[in-house]
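Reminder to self: tokens first, then the designed residues, so the page reads top to bottom the way the pipeline ran.
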């Protein structure tokens, strides 16, 4: 069985964990993480960066 180790970090310091979807069937990018054929749709990276930036600015009071 698999597990996510990040939960152990959160027991010591506050934090959050979220997923940015990167599957894109139109491009043939359909494989789950840790699958040998997994590949990310790089267009999803912008969404992840925008989300992390917005959360960070809100947390910092900006």
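Designed residues (62 positions):
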């Amino acid at each position: 069985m698999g597990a996510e180790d990040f939960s152990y970090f959160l027991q010591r310091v506050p934090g959050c964990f979220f997923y940015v979807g990167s599957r894109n069937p139109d491009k043939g990018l359909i494989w789950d993480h840790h699958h040998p054929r997994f590949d990310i749709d790089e267009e999803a990276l912008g969404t992840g960066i925008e989300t992390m930036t917005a959360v960070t600015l809100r947390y910092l009071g900006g």
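The mean pLDDT is 88.
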